[in-house]
Design brief:
This protein has no helices and 8 strands. The protein is an all-beta fold. The protein has one domain: Sandwich (Immunoglobulin-like), CATH 2.60.40. A 4-stranded antiparallel beta sheet has the order 5-2-1-8, with no helix packed on it. The protein has a 4-stranded antiparallel beta sheet with strand order 4-3-6-7, with no helix packed on it. β6 and β7 form a beta hairpin. The radius of gyration is 14 Å and the shape is globular. The two termini are 24 Å apart.
Length: 86
């Protein structure tokens, strides 16, 4: 799971698989640790966030608006069951 909160261009990223390295639009933005990562200002519009670690890379289109926004990306883990057993 990756959550990106933004407000007026300022942003914060949380992920369920820290530590991860974050690139925004191809530029290094920092390391996402267990407490998350706060960032500076981004222009309004769509940006590509890329989170990567030892055995994964996840590319995420993130839209930045003037209004507060929370975007959550959820992806099944490899080997996870296709549905919940009853």
């Amino acid at each position: 799971m990756v959550a990106v909160a933004s407000r007026g261009g300022a942003w914060r990223v949380l992920c369920s698989f820290p530590p991860a390295t974050l690139l925004i639009d191809g530029q290094p933005a920092g390391a996402v640790e267990a407490a998350g990562l706060d960032g500076g200002q981004l222009a309004r519009g769509t940006h590509e966030f890329v989170l990567s670690g030892q055995d994964f890379e996840q590319r995420l289109p993130v839209q930045i608006f003037a209004a507060p926004t929370l975007t959550v990306f959820v992806r099944a883990l490899k080997g996870a069951p296709a549905r919940t057993p009853r």
